[in-house]
Amino acid sequence: MLHSPRTSILLWLVTVVVVTLNLRPFLTAIGPLSPAIQAQTGMGLEALAWLTLLPMALIGAGTWLTPAVQQRLGVRPAMMLALAFIALGCVLRLAGSVSAVLIATAALCGVGVALVQGMLPGLIKFHTPRHVAPMMGGYSAALMSGGALGAQFSPLAMQWGLSWQGALALWVWPVLLALWLAWTTLGVMPLPSAVRQTGSDTAWLLRRRRTWLLMLAFGLMNGGYATMVAWLAPYYQEQGWSATHSGLLVAVVSVAQAVAALAFPTLVARHLDRRPWIWLTLACQAAGFAALAWRPDAAPMTAAVVLGVGIGGCFALFMVVALDHLHHPLRAGALNALMQGGGFMLTALAPWVMARLHQATGGFHAGWLAQFGAVLVVALLVARFKPGHYDEAMRPPAG
Q: Exposed, middle or buried, 7 (CB in 10 Å: 0-12/13-18/19+)?
């Protein structure tokens, strides 16, 4: 164990950031490279949607299984296994000329990300219980920053001479760094013994209506992120933008997400009622999707920033709200994992729906309007998240 608490927390913070940076590049790199991928593999829009749909669905399903994996393996081995899945998925993309292989690599990465995202929130609440909001802000910001890196550097790597397979596979290197750092940090920091010994009992959480409400709202909200990741670059490439330029637009959204994800939890740290801030982020999303649907060429970079602020801020606040509902770190982490699990399975449908709407209408306009409508639905659902009702909504079983 580390002797200095300050050094221990600093090492933990660095580990959280480095690990989390690796959870999105494998997704956001796809959109800007989609013309090259389609040209060599022959994948249509619906098949291409599976590169986002499948990992999102697996992130959802896998996150639900995380407590059982932690119970069986322990936190440290489970984290190593998760990062190893992501690394393997990235490496195998070197052989991604066949669409089935490429989809399999997305599945491997999705399983790894599921385990990481299922573990980290609960561990954050365990190690820094008095700083959950800013820590979750840092976690969310790192998540979005990784997305920005994937969207921007993958098309640049092709410009520098790599094949699209090589541009996707290069993300194995930061995963290997995360593996080493997580192994070192989790070897010297205390871990929640209840996770190792008994796991988190989540069955009773699934009998709470609030759990399902959180899943629904989170899934609809996060569908905007999945749709942006999958189709924003192809949308502008249809209008004549280059892979690098459209990738820059995705990166701008991701950077705005990262800034908002870091800022909003810090801003609301002293306000137990997070709803006004969530509504503000939803208003930004609505404005961004409206701009994409009706005025895509008016000010695309401005629209990208507004959309990114809305998505990033809302994601981070939902992560905090889920943890707010329960006082016990393991139970709070289990609720967060369930919200992500069910939510991501719903999120996974969004890119596929966008592809179907594109096929039916000949463009992306209807898909952006569908996301606009989803934002309005989430705004109504959020009204139910009254802090004074948390204990009643999530009352645990006796004993």
A: exposed
Q: Helix %, strand %, coil % for the chain, to 5?
A: 85, 0, 15
pLDDT tens digits for range 244-303: 999 999 999 989 998 998 889 888 877 889 999 999 999 999 999 999 999 999 999 999
Contacts of residue 147, Cβ cutoff 8 Å, sequence gap at least 6: 24, 25, 27, 28, 229, 250, 254, 257
Mean pLDDT to the nearest integer, 134-148? 85
What is the value of pTM for the model shown? 0.83
Q: How would you class 323 by CB atoms within 10 Å of its CB: exposed for 0-12, middle for 13-18, buried for 19 or more?
A: buried
pLDDT of residue 201: 58
Closest CA to 334 of 243, 59, 326: 326
* CA distance linking residue 382 with residue 285, whole number of Å: 15
CA distances from 176 to 19, 21, 249, 295, 380 (A): 10, 12, 28, 42, 42
d(CA 358, CA 340): 27
Where are the alpha helices (H) located in 1-131, listed in sequence order?
5-21, 25-28, 30-41, 45-73, 75-92, 99-127
Report the alpha-carbon distance of residue 228 to residue 30 in Å, rounded: 11
Residues, the chain, total?
A: 399
Helical (H) or strand (E) element with 109 = helix 99-127
Q: How far is the C-alpha of 62 from the C-alpha of 337, rounded, in Å?
A: 9
Give 319 or 132, the one with higher predicted confidence. 319
